[in-house]
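Before relying on records like the one below, remember that each one covers exactly one chain. Contacts with other chains, cofactors or solvent are not represented anywhere in the record.
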Amino acid sequence: MRAKITYALAAVVLVVYFVLVGSRGVFLIQAGTLLTVTFGIAVLVLPLIGLWFLWKNTQFARKAGLLAAELEREGGLPVDELERTPSGRIDRDSADAVFLRRKAETEAAPEDWRSWFRLAVAYHDARDTPRARKAMQRAIALHEGRQPAA
């Protein structure tokens, strides 16, 4: 729950920032010279890109959360079996061992969104965020009945 509140707060701050930046772009356009209109348009593009990025990330997080809830109802969420260092960080060798099992599970059932979800968690635990995100995107696509990107 704490992560959701933090995300929501960050999203609100970003939206306020985008509105402020966008208003500056409008002021520049209203000045009416070629230079200020050009800069105004350029300034308006940045908040639009930011809003698109925020929307896509919010959709991704929402869909991943729905998959987690469904998997939890089924009793299929991965159990935290990872060893930790004295400071509380995940032990790398332990994460690698779990990752190998999750990878084998996914190779055995490549069309099962559940195995891709668990693989995404294993990638995350192994601190490989880009691959974790791609695996989660594949899980979402399979769950939605879409053909996932290669």
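The chain has a mean pLDDT of 90.
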